[in-house]
Amino acid sequence: ICNGNDFPVFPGSSLAQCQFLASSIKACQARGKIVTLSLGGATGGSTFASNAQAETFAQQVWNLFFGGSSNTRPFGDAVLDGIDLDIEGGSSNGYAAFVNRFRALSNGASKK
Q: Where in the sequence numbering do the catalytic residues fall?
């Protein structure tokens, strides 16, 4: 629906500007649908070099898609409901640190 090849990207990044999806995300949520971010999959082979890198990535994901703040939020002010980690390839190194940091951020959030 929205990608960096067909839509503008934020300057200095490869993040597509998909703010037009914010109203649709909010409409789905208003109807009781849960909107999540999925990372990984069959072709996803990303790994973390350290726990610190994983924690930094958790903070970035939080700021871009959840309760944090960033000037480069792909979905504007829409706040997603959860995250799906589909770790099929690569190493599991750092994922516990990622989840723990993300959970800590979520526990301090006011959404829902």
A: 88
